[in-house]
Amino acid sequence: MATSDKRKQSLYFPQRMLKEIQEEAARQDRSLSWIVQKAWKIARREIMKYPSVNDIPDDEVDDTRGKTEPSSAT
After folding, report:
1. How far apart are CA 21 and CA 36, in angstroms?
2. C-beta separation of 21 from 32 below 8 A
């Protein structure tokens, strides 16, 4: 029997999203971990279609990690 690789990891979700995940976990009588793992398996093909931040020119990046679109000051 294969053993699963269990590593503890902290994940942070917006409060509303976490509440929805908790409600779904309760509805299915499953753990939060199980719900998130299944969601990833379902969504991963779609997510892999997104370009890497390394594939987007710097002047087009607009993310929450500090880079913003250049201002159009006149």
Report:
1. 8
2. yes
Do residues 11 and 21 make contact, with C-beta atoms less than 8 angstroms apart?
A: no
Q: Which residues contact 63 (CB under 8 A, 6 or more apart)?
A: 53
DSSP class of residue 29 equals T
DSSP state of 64: T
pLDDT, tens digit only, all 74 positions of the chain: 567 778 888 999 999 999 999 999 999 999 999 999 999 999 999 999 999 888 877 666 665 655 555 555 54
Q: Provide the b/e sequence for 5-25 (b: ≥16 CB within 10 Å).
A: eeeeeeeeeeeeeeeeeeeeb
- How far is the C-alpha of 63 from the C-alpha of 66, rounded, in Å? 7
Whole-model pTM over 0.90: no
